[in-house]
Design brief:
The complex is a heterodimer of chains A (430) and B (315). Helix content of chain A is 61%, strand content 7%. With 430 residues, chain A is an alpha/beta fold. The chains are: A alpha/beta (430), B alpha/beta (315).
Chain lengths: 430, 315
């Protein structure tokens, strides 16, 4: 009898495509996404974008910058990124680099100050006089750690001559100096070493290991974004989790369309003065409003319980909230229009939304991800919405700076609605 | 519900001309023509799958026919004028289950463009007509089956249609609720609405309909009043039903010899005069058949349908 029960369940499962998708396709899709993010697949280690400002222009600072540029863990920019073929702009200054970090162009900026080349190493008789400054964005907790580690490693390998010179000075100070012959030998050796560095025979930084040997260069870290925020991740997760659940709510709510089609209510409504475009427009308006209220509830909860600074960001929230709600509502409508039953919708929406949320940064920040996956994330509503809310709540940027996110979300919403309208033609007449 | 405009309308409430609709290779509606006048109830009688619902949906404009024409007071199907003149009560419970009766009626009223006092008045009329006044605030899903059916009907009446299409409105309804539904439809008809009523229940067609169109395989095979249909098929003939005990093969042979048919142990004959019963019974005695009972029956719509199609109405 147990076998009969199992057999019946197996027959039912075989006929239930939705359950099959949830049972087999979704776990595989998720496994693949997580493996790609955390599995360290070949050549996909995330690189940290680093802005470098070399105010010193000394031999030591230039060696250090060259080493950083060669480091495979870093993506060094000395000038703002321009479109392909366009001439490069002026080099970053300390001020423009700080603004770039504040705007989210890079999570970290390194400022090598004037005089760094005089005393680059943080030990020996002149230790402590030169300090490089690291400007960072608090929302990315990984990037500054990576840069500090790479900085120490690259200092060790990129400036051997400076290291040797510093060692000589230390020896002179504590053991009474060298004889003229000894000095000659050392200086000849240093000249050879400098030549080899210039020729690239020594001093090239290879690999992305985090073992940096802390302490070679004195680094002063300063947060230029989020320095006054109580908790860096609250606003991120309010947006990230909010958008994911918005997508679920929108697809569930749009599923009412399928219930109405099944019960005959849809056909009856379409026999009145209501056209399919008006009907879908009405559903879109309702689902947009529902999603916006849901987002507002999420952020208000963040304000009440987690001290999220909500009310001073109200204009930005309203703009981003409405655009996000519009895009997810249109997305839900398209899914509902494309499916024939609630079961189909349930399976498809679970699959698509979870994949979009993981790739789009709703489950963990996109800066954890390999470069290719970060770019793939831009195909999702989640990524654009989260980026917009981050601009508002984290970077304190004005509403006018939201135009890329607003444009994309509105365009996506309109496009999805038009496709949904096209797909819904099957309900219009037989 | 007042159908004041009917006298002012020169065109016939509903005219269907040579309508054809195919789904793939299946001919759902095959060259159907019919008309309905004001205050008239036309019954579409046919078994499941005969094409009744497709015909109704063509009239509403939900199905685009291959050929033919539908005119509602002269306006084409699905035109605004036709939509506003038509009330459609689909076979399914096409209402919103999670909102109340009043809210359902309000929603459909707004879909027909009603608002303000006119909408309130229409809702009140519909609740009264459907005898749902005391359940106005009840969620639709909590109503009994009969009440849901009545709400389903009321949702098609808010804009005071002058042509009403009922597609099997009594499916799954108990006899008491069915009577209530009949009364609702009769009230509409008495107020001058032109009505099409589809059913596969002969008794419903006989009670409600002034004329009946028998439809089978998408084609209207006969139209007229009940009497006209019966007379047209059977003339003044009646049916004799006789049951015998004994050898079934002998009963069958005797029935066939006398021009009748044996169905479920009952021998059926069509006779011109009631006096022919005596001759049949004498012959049965001679054949040594033992009579159990005998009855004389005037043919009904079921008989007409069976005669015309060779099938039962509920096959």
């Amino acid at each position: 009898m147990i076998l009969h029960i199992a057999r019946t369940a197996l027959i039912a499962l075989r006929r239930d495509r939705g359950a099959l998708v949830l049972s087999f396709v979704l776990p595989l899709a998720f496994f693949s996404i997580f493996a790609a993010i955390f599995g360290g697949q070949s050549n996909t280690t995330p690189r940290v974008t680093l802005i470098v400002v070399d105010e010193d222009k000394s031999e030591a600072s230039q060696d250090l910058v060259k080493a950083l540029e060669k480091d495979s863990s870093l993506w060094v920019h000395r000038t703002p990124v321009t479109k392909k073929g366009a001439p490069a702009g002026p080099e970053y200054t300390a001020a423009t680099a700080e603004k770039a970090v504040q705007a989210g162009d890079a999570p970290v900026a390194l400022i090598i100050p004037h005089g760094f080349g005089q005393h680059p190493i943080a030990f020996g008789p002149d230790a402590g006089e030169s300090t490089v400054e690291l400007l960072n964005d608090q929302s990315d907790m990984i990037a500054p750690q990576v840069v500090i580690g790479m900085l120490q490693k690259d200092a060790m390998t990129a400036m051997p001559a400076v290291m040797a010179e510093q060692g000589m000075k230390t020896a002179e100070k504590y053991i009474g100096g060298f004889t003229p012959e000894q000095k000659k030998v050392v200086e000849d050796g240093l000249a050879d070493l400098r030549k080899e560095v210039a020729e690239g025979k020594v001093g090239s930084a290879v690999g992305g290991s985090g073992d940096s040997g802390v302490g070679m260069i004195r680094v002063k870290t300063r947060a230029v974004v989020g320095e006054n925020k109580k908790s860096p991740m609250i606003s991120f997760y309010a947006a990230a989790i909010g958008v994911m659940f918005l997508l679920f709510t929108a697809s569930g709510s749009a599923g009412a369309l399928l219930d109405e089609a099944e019960s005959g209510t849809l056909e009856r409504v379409l026999s009145t003065q209501v056209t399919m475009t008006k009907l879908l427009g009405g559903k879109l308006a309702f689902n947009t409003l529902l999603a916006f209220v849901q987002l507002a509830a999420m952020f208000l909860w963040g304000w009440a319980v987690f001290k999220l600074d909500f009310f001073s960001h109200l204009p930005g929230f309203i703009v981003m909230g409405l655009c996000t709600a519009f895009a997810v509502a249109a997305f839900g409508l398209l899914l509902a229009s494309a499916c024939h039953t609630r079961a189909q919708l349930g399976a498809l929406s679970t699959l698509v939304i979870l994949v979009m949320s993981s790739v789009g940064g709703s489950m963990f920040p996109r800066y954890f991800m390999p470069e290719a996956m970060q770019k793939a994330g831009l195909l999702t509503i989640n990524a654009w919405a989260i980026d917009g809310f981050t601009k508002v709540f984290w970077r304190d940027l004005p509403v006018t700076d939201l135009w890329p996110q607003v444009s994309v979300l509105l365009a996506v919403g309109v496009a999805l609605f038009l496709v949904a309208r096209r797909v819904a033609r099957r309900w219009e007449v037989a | 519900m007042v159908m004041r405009a009917k006298e002012a309308e020169p065109a016939r409430p509903l005219a269907v001309e040579r309508l054809v609709k195919k789904f793939g290779d299946v001919m759902a509606v095959n060259d159907v023509s019919l008309t309905v006048g004001p205050g008239e109830c036309l019954g579409l009688l046919g078994p499941n799958g005969a094409g009744k619902s497709t015909l109704i949906r063509s009239i509403v404009g939900r199905v685009i026919p291959e050929s033919g024409r539908v005119a509602v007071f002269g306006a084409a199907a699905a035109s605004t004028k036709a939509r506003m003149a038509l009330g459609w009560v689909p076979q399914e419970l096409a209402i919103y289950p999670r909102i109340s009766c009043t809210e359902n009626l309000g929603a459909f009223g707004r879909y027909y463009g009603l608002k303000g006092a006119k909408l309130d008045e229409a809702i009140a009329w519909c609740l009264h007509w459907a005898a749902l006044e005391d359940r106005a605030g009840e969620l639709a899903k909590n109503l009994s089956g009969g009440m849901k059916r009545r709400l389903n009907m009321a949702a098609g009446m808010l804009h005071k249609p002058r042509v009403v299409l009922f597609d099997e409105p009594t499916v799954g309804v108990d006899p008491q609720s069915r009577n209530r539904i009949f009364e609702m439809i009769e009230a509409l008809r008495d107020e001058g609405a032109a009505i099409i009523y589809t059913t596969h229940y002969m008794e419903e067609a006989e009670r409600l309909c002034d004329r009946i169109a028998i439809i089978d395989h998408g084609r209207v095979i006969a139209t007229g009043t009940k009497e006209e249909l019966v007379r047209g098929v059977f003339g003044m003939r009646s049916q004799v039903l006789a049951r015998f005990s004994g050898d079934e093969a002998a009963i069958g042979a005797w029935t066939e010899r006398n021009g009748g048919q044996l169905k479920n142990g009952t021998a059926e004959f069509t006779v011109e005069q009631a006096t022919e019963i005596a001759r049949l019974l004498d012959d049965a005695t001679r054949a040594q058949l033992e009579l159990v009972d005998v009855s004389l029956r005037r043919p009904n719509l079921e008989s007409v349908f069976l005669h015309l199609t060779g099938r039962e109405l509920r096959d």
